[in-house]
Model the fold of this input.
Amino acid sequence: MATRTTRRSQRRTEALSRERIVGAAVELLDSAGEGGLTFRALAERLSTGSGAIYWHVANKDELLGAATDAVIAGALPAGPGDPAAGPREEIRAVALGLFVAIEEHPWLATQLSAQMARNPWGPVTPRIFERVGRRVRALDVPEENWFTATSVLVHYVLGAAGQNAANTAGARALGPDADRAAFLDSVAKAWEDLDPEDYPLTRAAADQIRDHDDREQFLAGVDLVLAGVMTLRPAAPPS
Done:
């Protein structure tokens, strides 16, 4: 009897792979946030015991790191990229992939910040840095500027995408009947009512809030950063 029980336990452990655990963790994070990710909730979702999960994942921090890495790996293009697209378009594609991932997984922005600050040796930080940095190198940026140029791009992408995710979460908190256009219109009106002497630029830009597209604005920011990166390339010799 003991042998049969052991074999059944081994089969369950083999079926309960780390990949399945991480996938279920991502689902829990999406639906309930970081606070809802517990080993008990995960065990219920996977129809197993907490001990079986601990066989694959040591603790919650490791699980959060693995979930973050899994989402980022799925969001970033694999391989060297499409030579026909060109490095600038490839950078925009990488940036947009990260933007969408952070938008679709509200917990991701916080976890990315934590991973980059507490665990910059990997695997998340090198994965993002490499994907952007290869394209920076392909722009003929001098090697001494690779780190700075790549860092600026990565910080803009993650910062802007994280702010967009926070805005999206804030809109959801207003309730299912919240109207984005009405919300933006109220913000624009509030800006238009600011003191013209203290906030001349903010009042002038208020109307642009109403009709802006978040993704277009994000990519416009990527293009602005890239325009600065391009100035790092050596000047062409005179003809």
